[in-house]
Amino acid sequence: MKSKIRVLLKLIIFVIIIAIIIFINKLTQSHTEKDVAEIIKRLGVSNLVSGNGNLYVDGTNLKNMYHENFQLKGISSHGIQWYYDLLTKDNLTYLRDVWGINVFRIAMYTNENGYISNPTEIKQKAYNLIDMCIDLDLYVIIDWHTLSDNDPNMYIEEAKAFFEETSLKYQNVPNLIYEICNEPNQGSVTWSNQIKPYAEEIIPIIRNNSKDSVILVGTPTWCVNLNDPTNEPLDFNNIMYTFHFYAGTHKSESRNTITKALENGLPVFISEWGTTDISGNSGFDAESTMDWIHFMDENNLSWINWSFSNKDEDSAILTSEYSNETLQEGLTIDNYISESGNLVRQFINTKKYNPLYEY
Ligand code: IDC
User: How many CB atoms lie within 10 A of CB 5?
Assistant: First the structure.
């Protein structure tokens, strides 16, 4: 009898010891996982939405959910009425994983056979791309790409309906950033009389559905005049004012404009820039591009390069030999990269997310 009890006791002690070992093991394991997650977060290895959450504007800085300064870097589509087919999930995944982009901009032209003449089809294309970017954990900018329609009020009714529907559909989705007009232009289109009143109509519509979204607002004269918005800023939170430069055309004077605006508290976002002159098709300027890249990194300025296309123009990041069909096994968009694309590619994954990066 006694020996039976002894065997039973030994068994119980054995089971307890095993249970303690399993428990300790579990405990240290979960610590390790937590530590790794913390390290990843601290190193900023994840520069995507799951790693940074809802972005917001604090002073002149864009910040992530950890209240750290945060830079978006990515590529803009060309007009999606022309170059939609290039924007496959494989290509966007490649841009994310190999080039390191964390944002993609959808240039939804209003004119030039864009949204205004074909709203149903173009909107569907834009929504497909937004969905794809959400799926890929990318930030995504929906750009109401006014251009030859120089005054954003020209299609304000269409803009109101579009932003109402879109902000409802993507209510509080942290990926989505709204750019309410691309480049207001020509002398008669001023900040006070046209652009600010337009923004004051559109922003509340978006805010009503998606209260925390970051909203980008175009500035006068093709997005190079920050002076007027500085003197008369909009009375909303989480707004950034866009500046566009083309390295062959805009140089230190333009950087001075931005520095001055930042000093005066205006949050600036470079929602479009090119390595070429303003035509998008000549004056490729590597040296000026470098100056700009340094400047943007130093000032925590987010940027979007123009553009993801294979059009025969210097600002396109792909050569005109590219077609989706040419991407046979083993080939990638890097096999069709243009001179401009090559330059831009090196500057995406810079110091902040890549400890090995040096200028
Ligand atoms: C250009 C395209 C070009 C197209 C033209 C008109 O590169 O292929 O024919 O638009 O649709 C901008 C505009 C952007 C321009 C770009 C280069 O936002 O739409 O793209 N640019 O000219 N502002 C300054 C330069």
Answer: 9
CATH class of 49-352: alpha beta
Q: Distance between CA 158 and CA 160 in Å, rounded?
A: 5
Tell me the pLDDT tens digit for each residue of 286-304: 999 999 999 999 999 999 9
pTM beyond cutoff 0.85: yes
- With the most atoms of ligand 1 within 8 angstroms of its CB, the residue from 150, 272, 318 to mutate is 272
Contact residues for 13 (Cβ-Cβ < 8 A; gap 6+)? none
Under a CB-based contact definition with an 8 Å cutoff, are residues 143 and 103 in contact? Answer: no
Say whether 325 is catalytic.
no
Each residue of 146-198: pLDDT tens digit?
A: 999 999 999 999 999 999 999 999 999 999 999 999 999 999 999 999 999 99
Candidates 183, 201, 253, 287; catalytic one:
183
Q: How many helices (H) and strands (E) does the chain have?
A: 12, 10
Decide if 272 is catalytic.
yes
SS3 category, 255: helix
Structural domain boundaries in the chain: 49-352
* Whole-number Å distance between alpha carbons of 322 and 241: 34
- As for ligand 1, residues whose beta carbon falls within 6 Å of it are 112, 147, 182-183, 222, 244, 246, 272, 278-280, 306, 311, 313, 315
